[in-house]
């Protein structure tokens, strides 16, 4: 039995076409009519594959690659072996991605798992729900009363769309997800197993028990947002939870109630954002970062992985650590701790106790 490949190229590109697409400059001896059909790493590329090099860590692979062509940064031009067709690019990886997108457009958005148009057998759609022509609802999915789904949107198997939920056009909602109390724009991608719009975690605590706080608002997800598998986004309690246009959220992220996230933010895996926090536009949170409630992170700020943010961060700054602080201060502290750890003659070996000497 042959091994399947799940993405087949939609087209092929010559080196001349790649140069036009990316702005890269072919070397003088590069055969501009050479055809590229796939992309690969330097060590695995074959005669019809395009590779790239921008990291010195992989420079030694350049001499051994069998790639049909390679995008390289200008600093590696002198190391190109004879016979390798190269295109010099200021940003080789960005150019490589542009070529991959052109060759494999189907990889950019999840498609129907069942492969049938319209309503699939076993889907349950309430009579009052409204589906535009071209919407796809796959087996086992449930669409509740008053829900609205736009043309070109795919609702994956066993997904549940709650009452009154509105989903725009050309969206993809992954298998096994649940969406309630939510409004989604166009071209939103929700990967499998997401939970969007459930209760926020709100209780008034007291010695006689904890009283649940009503969670009365919605989740608003704007155009071109992508949400990774297993992510949870709670609906707002006193104001909407909002995910701004173009924001990209990785797998296994928790976003609490009333959180406001701006446009084009990047939130990496296992991050937790507590209720009523605010991320302004273009914020980046590294993996496993934690953001306390009511914190404001300014436009363009970046937070290092495994950091704990307990106070506001001004726009454009880079912070890290637990508790998080400006990156320079954090680095100074780490160096000071390292010097202390290397004390007693610079050795980091444990010193023998009196008991050990006997």
Automatic annotation (TrEMBL):
Catalysed reactions, as listed in the record: a UDP-3-O-[(3R)-3-hydroxyacyl]-alpha-D-glucosamine + a (3R)-hydroxyacyl-[ACP] = a UDP-2-N,3-O-bis[(3R)-3-hydroxyacyl]-alpha-D-glucosamine + holo-[ACP] + H(+)
Q: Does the entry feature the keyword Glycoprotein, yes or no?
A: no
EC number annotated for this UniProt entry? 2.3.1.191
Q: Which Pfam families match?
A: Hexapep, LpxD
GO CC entries: membrane
State which pathway it belongs to: Bacterial outer membrane biogenesis; LPS lipid A biosynthesis
Locate the active site.
257
Keyword list (alphabetical) reads: Acyltransferase, Lipid A biosynthesis, Lipid biosynthesis, Lipid metabolism, Repeat, Transferase
**Does the record's keyword annotation contain 4Fe-4S?**
no
PROSITE patterns per record: HEXAPEP_TRANSFERASES
Q: Which Gene3D superfamilies match?
A: Hexapeptide repeat proteins, MurE/MurF, N-terminal domain
* Gene Ontology MF, one: UDP-3-O-[(3R)-3-hydroxyacyl]-glucosamine N-acyltransferase activity
- Residue ranges of every copy of the UDP-3-O-[3-hydroxymyristoyl] glucosamine N-acyltransferase non-repeat region domain listed in the record: 33-101
State the oligomer form and interacting partners: Homotrimer.
Role: Catalyzes the N-acylation of UDP-3-O-acylglucosamine using 3-hydroxyacyl-ACP as the acyl donor. Is involved in the biosynthesis of lipid A, a phosphorylated glycolipid that anchors the lipopolysaccharide to the outer membrane of the cell.
Protein known as: UDP-3-O-acylglucosamine N-acyltransferase
The organism of origin for this protein? Rhodoplanes roseus
Q: What gene name is given for the protein in this entry?
A: lpxD
